[in-house]
Design brief:
five-stranded parallel β-sheet, 222 residues, 50% helix
Length: 222
C-alpha cells in the first residue's frame, strides 16, 4: 500500500485527488493539508510514502515545505511529488533542487497521475507523464551549484557513463540497451552511483549529472 499525503490550498483539488487515489487498491490518502506548514507537521505524524505537494500556497509554499521535509532525517523515506499548473514553471526548477522526487501537472490524465505516483514510490523514475524531457534541458540551462570533486571521483568510468544516461532521462531498460548489458546490471550501476554520490533518489542523480558536468546544458538538443 502506497500511503499519500495530499497538499493543496484548494479543497476541490484535494477532494478530486482523494477520490482518484482512494479508488485504487494500492493507494491510500492518509491526510490532507492546505499549506506547506501543515504538510510538514502531517508528514511527521503520518510518515507517508509520498507527499503530493502543490507549489503556490499560503503560510509556507510548496518549495519551502519540500525542502523542510527532505532535510528532516526523520522523513528520509518520504518522497515529494510536486504538483504544478505549468510544466515549465519556474517553481519546478527550485523544487528539484529542494529535493523533489517527481513532478505532475494538474492537467495530467487521471490514469497517468496514478501510474506516476507508483513509479516514484518505487524509486525508478524521475518525471511523471506530462513533464517532458525538455524540462531537464530548461533546468540545466540555469545557474547550477558546484558538486564536490570527491563525489565525482568516487565513480568508476562505467558509473559516470550510466549517470550521464540517467541525466538524459533514460530508464534502466534503455540504459541496458544502450550499454548492451542486462537491466539488472544497469540498475546495479545506478544504485551504486546513488550511494557513492550520496543522493536520495533518481531525481537527484539527474541534478548531479548536470551539476557535475557529466551532461552539458543543451547538449541533449544538439
Amino acid at each position: 500500500m502506497i500511503r499519500v499525503l495530499l497538499v493543496d490550498d484548494q479543497p476541490l483539488i484535494r477532494t478530486g485527488l482523494r477520490a482518484l487515489l482512494d479508488s485504487e487498491d494500492d493507494l491510500e490518502v492518509v491526510a490532507e493539508a492546505e499549506d506547506g506548514a501543515g504538510a510538514y507537521e502531517l508528514a511527521l505524524e503520518h510518515r507517508p510514502d509520498l507527499v503530493l505537494m502543490d507549489v503556490q500556497m499560503p503560510v509556507l509554499d510548496g518549495i519551502a515545505a519540500t525542502r523542510r521535509i527532505v532535510d528532516d532525517e526523520r522523513l528520509a523515506a518520504v518522497r515529494v511529488v510536486v504538483l504544478t499548473n505549468y510544466g515549465l514553471d519556474e517553481y519546478v526548477f527550485d523544487a528539484l533542487r529542494a529535493g523533489a522526487s517527481g513532478f505532475l501537472v494538474k492537467d495530467t490524465a487521471p490514469d497517468e497521475i496514478v501510474q506516476a505516483l507508483r513509479v516514484v514510490a518505487d524509486g525508478d523514475a524521475l518525471l511523471s507523464p506530462g513533464i517532458t524531457r525538455r524540462l531537464i534541458s530548461e533546468f540545466v540551462a540555469r545557474p547550477a551549484e558546484v558538486v564536490s570533486v570527491s563525489s565525482l571521483e568516487a565513480l568508476t568510468a562505467r558509473e559516470r557513463e550510466v549517470v550521464a544516461l540517467v541525466g538524459y532521462g533514460l530508464s534502466n531498460d534503455e540504459i541496458a540497451e544502450r550499454l548492451v548489458v542486462s537491466p539488472t546490471t544497469a540498475k546495479t550501476h545506478v544504485s551504486r552511483a546513488m550511494t557513492k554520490t550520496g543522493v536520495r533518489d533518481r531525481a537527484q542523480l539527474v541534478v548531479f549529472a548536470y551539476e557535475s558536468g557529466l551532461v552539458r546544458p543543451r547538449e541533449r538538443d544538439a
